[in-house]
Structure prediction request, 385 residues.
Amino acid sequence: MIPDRSPGFGVYIHWPFCAAKCPYCDFNSHVRHQPVDQKRFSEAFAAELATMRRRTGPRTVTSIFLGGGTPSLMEPATVGAVLDAVARNWTVPDGIEVTLEANPSSVEAERFRGYRAAGVNRVSLGVQALNDRDLKFLGRLHNVEEALKAIELARKTFPRLSFDLIYARPGQTLEGWRAELEEAIWHAADHLSLYQLTLEEGTPFHALAARGKLTIPDDDHAADLYALTQAVTASRGLPAYEISNHARPGAESRHNLTYWRYGEYVGVGPGAHGRFVEDDRRIVTIAEKAPERWLDLVEARGQGTVDGETLTRTEEADEFLLMGLRLVEGIDLARYEALSGRSLPSERVSDLQRERLIEPVGNSRLRVTPAGMIVLDAVVADLAR
Prediction:
């Protein structure tokens, strides 16, 4: 585990465009059949970053993350311009984590060297499956051969690499997932993100399931797949450090740790969220989702923010629990008390400990057990009531 547990200050850049919309995805992503005016978007990112700098004041950035959508549809020059804009507004130390999400199609993989030259030092590949049948089912545009070539090129180009897989797919057996996971670990450099397939409202998969045309593993089988995931990754040197993320010690995603440790971050781009301290209170910013409307707003007034709020102490404490208990390291009890103005309810803590769903870590921290991770939402709700 990363010895420095400081939450950090991150910058998130949202590129909202994709070549195709995956049927399981509920992210703010959009398909455009005409070329995107990348220069115009780059200038809008720069303008919104400058506005956010006026709100946050001077800060030292600990990580930058270009997510989406499909940021690997950005030209390397666009990525470079955005990273330069971040550096104009805040202090950006040499060597901080700069991640770009990428799809492993061969055309986008050819851009990797350009991204590296622009300042990206970590890439996160959306592989999602290592068999062609399931890649087609998931709506991915690449095949396994292209994915493995992209992984190989990424390992040669970037100091750090992660890739995603989705499991608990229809008909997936324990034996099949074990074999796929073992292959993934063999190819992985130092980090894997392993997500259970969920049916998010508003997606084509959700609609198919509602009509009885799509069935995913039930809760018991999904729990067995999760337990297998933890066992195999731990035995291969990539233990979980968060409920869905696995890394060799020291290779954890610094940017995502900022979220889970309840740090501050600026969100820029269509649909991006931010959470940072302004006038001694934690505020939430939410940007317009529609890319062209966001662009118009930024050009008119320097930001695309359309919603937000100032959090109460109770809301801050509840978010801190929700995020921090996802981590294997757990939460700092003193920080919870500082945020909430109270201790966790002792009776509920005792009940959950007796049920072996949570456990103390020394005298200062509390974490969820492996059994508790399977019912994490219920554990958090019980503590936050």
Observations:
- Residues 9-259 form a domain with the TIM Barrel fold (CATH 3.20.20.70).
- The chain has a mean pLDDT of 94.
- The longest strand covers residues 160-167.
